[in-house]
Amino acid sequence: MNILTSSHAPAAVGPYVQGIIPSAPGVPVFLSGQVGLNPISNTLVEGLEAQTRQAFSNIEAVLSEAGLTLNDIVYANVLLEDINDFKEFNGYYADVFGDHRPTRAAYAVDKLPLGALVEIVVIAWKKF
Q1: Which 3 state secondary structure label does DSSP give 51?
Q2: 32, 45, 103, 117: which has the fewest C-beta neighbours closer than 10 Å?
Q3: What is the rounded CA–CA span in Å between residue 12 and residue 26?
Q4: Domains (ranges, CATH) in the chain?
Q5: What does the H/E/C string look like for 85-117?
Q6: How many separate helices (H) and strands (E) can be counted in the chain?
Q7: What is the DSSP string of 60-82?
Q8: Are 124 and 74 in contact (CB under 8 A)?
Q9: What is the C-alpha to C-alpha distance for residues 85 and 80, in angstroms, rounded to an integer?
């Protein structure tokens, strides 16, 4: 992936990059939003950290069906029930992604499905 960085645009205020150009021919893989729903009990796990990590576990499960990992994600759309959770969420998000930094948007919404605290939607790049 080729990372785009411009000194003429604001720097990232979290663990993401300004832009990405996927390298190698491929296709985008669009995932539906994931919340912290445990697939075995079909119930929400409790707390922001647990819900964030479970949402990413769910994302990893869906990506694996296409032979992809979190490192193939080029964009994440993060919906938070409370924008005051932004800084705390960023810590968990950075931990999950490690050195990989997809592009991202994050914002608060009035309510999320099932009373979730966070929902994460991603786009990955599947190389040919």
Answers
A1: helix
A2: 32
A3: 27
A4: 2-127 (3.30.1330.40)
A5: HHHHHHHHHHHHHCCCCCEEEEEECCCCHHHCC
A6: 2, 6
A7: HHHHHTTT--GGGEEEEEEEES-
A8: yes
A9: 7
Q: Among positive and negative, which fits the CA dihedral 106, 82, 55, 30?
A: negative
Q: What is the pLDDT along the chain (128 residues), one digit of tens a residue?
A: 788 989 999 888 888 888 988 888 999 999 999 999 999 999 999 999 999 999 999 999 999 999 999 999 999 999 999 999 999 999 999 999 999 999 999 999 999 999 999 999 999 999 98
Q: Which of 21, 28, 31, 61 is nearest to 127 (CA)?
A: 28
Indicate the pTM of the whole model.
0.91
